[in-house]
What we know:
alpha/beta, CBS-domain, 3-stranded mixed beta sheet
Amino acid sequence: MRIEQIMRHDPTRVGPDEPVSRLIEWYANPGNRSRYTYVVDKKGQLQGVVTMMELLGLILPPELVAGYENGETAETEVVRKVLASLTARKDTPVRQIMRTDLPTVRASDFFLSARLLLSERQIRALPVVDGQGVLVGEVTRRVLLRLLDNMLRDPDLFELKKDSKRLFETASEFFIG
């Protein structure tokens, strides 16, 4: 079974110059379940990834959090500093905070390749790229669990569809860019 059969085919993507305020707004959407936003260039080539943690790290710097946790900064002062930080950094382009160390898989890879990387790197999702580095999908822990659930429910379905491009639909709730 290949990753192309189970991957999400429309992961969330943004251009490198998208302001972080747009991502904050998107992640705050109660219907959004995706934790990764992929940064791609105009050709769709994967440049990096931004997660909620990168956004929080930008707006809530470690020294601010530590000051509060150590009792050195009062709650009212923390709120004032968070608002100042948010205002000052809201237009920061995502390219300045994106991570570039995320491993990738190819659509033609066997599905266990994704499981191994997800486990080794302790991450929740992997971008799927083609031979030119263009983002074509995403495979997540949830997708792998959905595969196992579907196999339990209807094992014959997988024998019949082993050459299918997609075994089940997986889609993002929202698309930016």
